[in-house]
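Can't paste images in this forum, so I'm doing it all in text. The chain is below; anyone willing to post the predicted structure tokens underneath?
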Amino acid sequence: MNRLLEKAGRLSLLFALLPLLAPSATAQTAQITAKQAANTETEKEKQEEAKDRSKLMKSHFANGNQAMQDAQAIRQQLQTVTHDQKSTLLARMKADYQAAITEYQQALEDTTVRDENGVRVIGLIGVIRNGLVSQQKAVEMLVQDKDLPVILSNLGMAYGGAGEYQEAITILQQAAILKPAAGTYMELGTDLAQVGRMQEATATCDEIPTVYTTAQKVPAGCYKNISIVLMNDGKLAEAIAPLQKATELNPQDALAWKLLGDALSSTVTMKSKDGKVVYVIPAGTIEAYQKYLQLEPSGPYVGPVQSALEGFARLTKRVSTPTEEKEKN
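Text version of the structure:
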């Protein structure tokens, strides 16, 4: 009985303490509630900020796209204008490309893509380059944003259009890491050729079918771009191989056939045969020019191509030796 009373006494003491503990528990509950409310408010603020940044990003991206379209329209005009008009148009085109660069850079600033440790994507790609993590590991670490690779790719194209090829290569390589795309590789191959890295440029064109198996015209355009860079540098013979690839992949590209004819024409040689001078025209030269005329019978290069074919016709005729000329006289 005494033990029972003792327990009862303890219970009474415990119940007596409850009113004293209650205020503390209530305070804790209030703190938790306040913290949750604060977290909710913070989350709302973050969401609103993300929406605002998304709107800004889309606006800058659209402005960049418009500037790119303006620049490309001028590039088309340059093919038909007089020499006096070119300098003004070139200045406008460069200004448009620079405007596109500025807008795309701002669009990048407005993206909030980060990995779980808060490392910005651009910084993470730098880590890849330094060999601290593999490309696969880096991509796994990223919280992907579908807009980011597109912005990077377009920014790289803008740099290329402005003639800042090294910067273009850096940006395009980043875009390809995040999302391999045929157009990105095509532009990257072209810019690599512009800085003389021809082996890498060709290898980049070779990569396109592995990214987009049905994009035959894209690698064809990539090889054609490389050949144009080579020909602009006076390296016509080196342009033959990429042009052969371009015409094989896209036999309907009239310009590629015309360029192939030009490149092959640069390798015409002379030799002496039976005491006579004979011109050796590389196989496929005449066929390439004929293919151009077939595809574009009213094209802009019809005149030069027909003149070239007439010239080859004369070259293939028998050429008299100096001795024969004396005998005629």
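Strands lie at 269-273, 276-280. Residues 26 and 32 are 10 Å apart (CA to CA).
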